[in-house]
Design a protein that fits this description.
Blueprint (H helix, E strand, L loop, with lengths): L2 E6 L6 H11 L6 E6 L4 H12 L2 E8 L2 E7 L7
Parallel strand pairs: 1-2
Antiparallel strand pairs: 2-4, 3-4
């Protein structure tokens, strides 16, 4: 299992969710993706998208105007 980061700073809705979706498509179940964004709506939109698509939100942290959302990629082989 690997850890990846996605820079979605300065992108407005719906782009952080779209970029997250596109990046997760290339990852394997159990991998971790940390999305770094500045759009306040992303702290709700990305976790909602994850719930619908079977991914686990490990953490949502806000600091200094940045939001970091850590996601564990779900799938049939995820731990």
């Amino acid at each position: 299992m690997e850890r990846f980061e996605l820079d979605a700073r300065r992108l407005l809705c719906p782009l952080p969710v779209i970029r997250t979706q596109n990046r997760i498509r290339s990852l394997r179940a159990g991998d971790t993706l940390e999305v770094v964004c500045t759009d306040p709506g992303a702290s709700h939109d990305i976790p909602a998208w994850c719930r619908v698509h079977g991914h686990e939100v490990v953490e949502v942290a806000e600091h200094g105007g940045e939001i970091r959302i850590t996601i564990r990629v779900g799938g049939p082989n995820a731990p």
